[in-house]
Automatic annotation (TrEMBL):
This is DinB-like domain-containing protein. InterPro entries: DinB-like, DinB/YfiT-like. Residues 14-147 form the DinB-like domain. It comes from Cohnella abietis. It comes from the Bacteria. It holds the Pfam family DinB_2.
Length: 161
């Protein structure tokens, strides 16, 4: 049985929180951007899915005792380069959830020493597997607030008509 220094239920719950936050949104609300240089809800979901992919890679690099610095990624360029505002919300949420499940199954096999394996992130800071997973949870929670702000703003546009 895994010895986990983080709340793995909170890790898995990220998907459900996203689903709950976007429930009932129209296509217009999913695509609406507060400004040309800001993300729509679909773009936030795309970013979180991309971030999940990158974190999945980072975790495996740490577990492999890699000496390479953990990669950064150009989040804005990734979002715009893949035309994220044209993505399908159901596909994003499905893939996001599958990565959570895939990683969760890995986490169940880790021992205390595995969770403490560490390396350098792109900022030159030492981070452990536990740090990377907790940072992912925190990052996703932060983007939930961004989605809520978008929802509130687009709804406010329609109530002032």
């Amino acid at each position: 049985m895994s010895v986990t220094p983080i709340d793995l239920q909170a890790y898995l719950a990220v998907h459900d929180l996203l689903v709950e936050e976007i429930e009932g949104l129209t296509d217009e609300q999913l695509h609406w951007k507060p400004a040309p240089d800001k993300w729509s809800v679909l773009e936030v979901l795309t970013h979180l899915t991309d971030h999940n992919i990158v974190v999945t890679f980072r975790i495996r690099e740490l577990l492999a005792n890699s000496t390479a610095a953990l990669p950064a990624f150009s989040q804005d360029d990734w979002v715009s380069g893949q035309h994220a505002n044209a993505a399908e919300v159901s596909e994003l949420l499905f893939f996001f959830r599958q990565l959570l499940i895939y990683n969760h199954r890995l986490f169940s096999r880790l021992d205390a020493a595995d969770w403490q394996k560490s390396g350098l992130n792109f900022k030159g800071q030492v981070v452990s597997v536990a740090d990377v997973v907790q940072a992912f949870i925190n990052h996703a929670i932060g983007h939930l607030a961004q989605i809520k702000r978008n929802k509130d703003a687009v709804r406010g546009l329609h109530t002032s008509d």
